């Protein structure tokens, strides 16, 4: 789980061009949207593509997005549940 | 009706954020193309805001907001930009991802940011400006078209027009266009550009923004008296005639010009036009170059206008732009003559206020 969270942080930094950030700067339990990293709807699209590209997970129900993308930890838990 | 430049800022390969610093010396480069200097974005935007923007977008925002601040304007009546290539970095990123991922997993960011009007749109979003917003993509007349539109808007009674131009270069686009022979095949120092006897221009990139208004203010740099665009002149006589008609129309004689800024780019063939003018009608006029500072790109006329505005405003110019030994004891009238690939020709006439 720790490795998965670390990889997710690195992939998010790359996908969202968070050039000045390092994985250790991101709190895995902090909200990704609005507070925390302060991501927006365009970032949500980037995260959907990231999940499909790196983990082969397609989001079938858009309503799951809010819960799934709450934090990096919830993303990691979702990926683990799909393995 | 007069057009006044009440604020301006530019970024090229030289230190242009402060004219006094700029005058201290020419920064020498020995590289394939001149790149804009690193810019400190932190006073202007957070890292989260900056993360989707390529360098040209961020540089343009800083230049535009600096020009607005100088003029004391918070909301322009229009935002008008010119660009030859648009946001080529993000266009390449988007296309590369399409190829690498076999047209799967396409992400929105590079696509959104790659459109030609990204700069004008980002400035408007940041200012929450819902006024006229337009981007001209007319090759070597892109910035000049934007400026012409600004002048027309001012004539219609609008005030405070934010107008700018910029282009960026990428290693990929440079290598493709180098094969056409447009750029120098060998690496030359920018400080030695005008001594070369080879074909091909020195490539560059940059952005410049201006706050143009119909009213003078305490921040006014200069008056833009007139602008002329002309396309594919048949021969040097047509260029001579166009310059003469332009000056006559503005009640200006060649002898009234205190400095002519010329767009020589180091290409032996293309520079023949400038050399002919330098040795004939402008022989007795102090002359200056600017493309050893900025390099050649579609919207480098915007940098030439920044340079001329600063010179008229500060009443001096540095040795390293001088193209001849003629001297002047005043700088009231400056003419810019530039052409892109002998296709898009431009004349700008500026006077001190």
Helix-strand layout with pairing:
The complex is a heterodimer of chains A (83) and B (353).
Chain A: H1 2-15, H2 41-55, H3 65-68, H4 72-82
Chain B: E1 3-11, H1 19-23, E2 30-31, H2 47-50, H3 55-71, E3 78-82, H4 88-100, H5 108-113, H6 118-127, E4 132-136, H7 142-155, E5 161-167, H8 171-178, E6 188-189, E7 206-213, E8 222-231, H9 236-249, E9 259-262, H10 271-279, E10 287-289, H11 291-294, H12 300-314, E11 333-340, E12 344-351
Parallel strand pairs in B: 3-4, 3-5, 9-10, 9-11
Antiparallel strand pairs in B: 1-7, 1-8, 2-6, 5-7, 8-12, 11-12
Largest sheet of chain A: none
CATH class of the largest domain in chain B: Alpha Beta
* Count of alpha and pi helical runs of chain B: 12
Order of helices and strands of chain A: HHHH
Rounded to the nearest angstrom, the distance between the terminal CA atoms of chain B is 14 Å
Distance between the termini of chain A: 12 Å
Low-confidence region ranges of chain A: none
Secondary-structure class of chain A: mainly alpha
Radius of gyration of CA atoms of chain A, rounded to a whole number? 12 Å
Query: What is the helix fraction of residues of chain B, given as a range?
Result: 25-40%
Please give the most extensive interface between any two protein chains, plus how many residues each contributes.
A-B, 15 and 12 residues
């Amino acid at each position: 789980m720790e490795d998965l969270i670390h990889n997710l942080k690195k992939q998010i930094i790359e996908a969202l061009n968070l050039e000045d950030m390092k994985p250790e700067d991101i709190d895995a339990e902090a909200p990704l949207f609005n507070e925390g990293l302060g991501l927006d709807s365009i970032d949500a699209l980037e995260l959907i593509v990231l999940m499909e590209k790196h983990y082969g997970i397609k989001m079938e129900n858009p309503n799951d997005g809010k819960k799934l993308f709450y934090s990096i930890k919830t993303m990691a838990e979702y990926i683990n549940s799909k393995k | 009706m007069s057009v006044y430049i009440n604020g301006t800022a530019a970024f090229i390969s030289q230190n242009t954020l402060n004219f006094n610093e700029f005058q201290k010396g020419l920064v020498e480069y020995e590289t394939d193309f001149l790149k804009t200097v690193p810019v400190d974005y932190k006073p202007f935007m957070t890292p989260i805001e900056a993360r989707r923007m390529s360098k040209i977008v961020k540089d343009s925002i800083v230049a535009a907001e600096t020009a607005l601040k100088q003029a004391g304007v918070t909301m322009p009546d229009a935002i008008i930009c010119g660009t030859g290539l648009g946001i080529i970095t993000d266009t390449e990123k988007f296309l590369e991802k399409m190829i690498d991922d076999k047209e799967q997993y396409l992400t929105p960011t590079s696509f959104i940011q790659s459109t030609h009007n990204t700069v004008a749109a980002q400035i408007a979003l940041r200012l929450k400006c819902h006024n006229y917003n337009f981007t001209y993509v007319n090759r070597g007349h892109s910035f000049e078209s934007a400026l012409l539109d600004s002048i027309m808007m001012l004539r219609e009674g609008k005030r405070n027009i934010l107008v700018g131009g910029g282009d960026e270069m990428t290693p990929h686009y440079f290598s493709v266009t180098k094969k056409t022979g447009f750029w120098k095949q060998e690496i030359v120092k920018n400080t030695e550009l005008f001594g070369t006897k080879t074909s091909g221009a020195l490539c560059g990139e940059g952005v410049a923004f201006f706050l143009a208004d119909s009213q003078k203010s305490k921040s006014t740099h200069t008056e833009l008296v007139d602008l002329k665009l002309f396309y594919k002149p048949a021969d040097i006589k047509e260029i001579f005639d166009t310059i003469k008609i332009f000056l006559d129309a503005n009640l200006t004689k060649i002898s009234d010009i205190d400095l002519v800024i010329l767009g020589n780019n180091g290409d032996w063939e293309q520079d023949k036009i400038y050399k002919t003018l330098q040795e004939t009608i402008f022989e007795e006029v102090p002359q200056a170059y600017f493309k050893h500072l900025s390099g050649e790109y579609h919207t480098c006329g915007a940098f030439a206008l920044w340079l001329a505005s600063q010179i008229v405003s500060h009443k001096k110019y540095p040795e390293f732009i001088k193209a001849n030994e003629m001297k002047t004891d005043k700088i009231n009238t400056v003419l810019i003559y530039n052409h892109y690939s002998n296709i898009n020709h431009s004349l700008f006439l500026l006077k001190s206020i």
